[in-house]
Amino acid sequence: MFIQTAIFSLMVFLLGAALFTTFLKNYYLNIFPFIFLYFTTLTISVNFILIKISTLKMSSFINKFMIASTLKIFLNLICLIVYVLVQRQNAVPFLICFLVHYMLFTSYEVISILSFLKKN
What residue ranges do the domains of the chain occupy? Predict the structure, then answer.
């Protein structure tokens, strides 16, 4: 699963690089590569934890999955609030980029975990 996550992350990175060097050149912020690294690291970490706990009973796994998702949402919310409070002038491009990464990586995470659970 790590290799699949690395391939997905590379595709997201290349798509972002292509967009920000062409169409969205005026909206590029130096923080954007860190958003990518943040979501890649978070996704790998959460996937690793969820794979480890996938051997538990389904009800226990669901509870732990919901706890992990809640913690992840709060962590993301804290990052958003801190950045927006510190860099108000760049808030809109940052929020859009963060939201796009959040949707892409969360969708990937759910699909990959469901696929892993179906195989096992």
Answer: 2-119
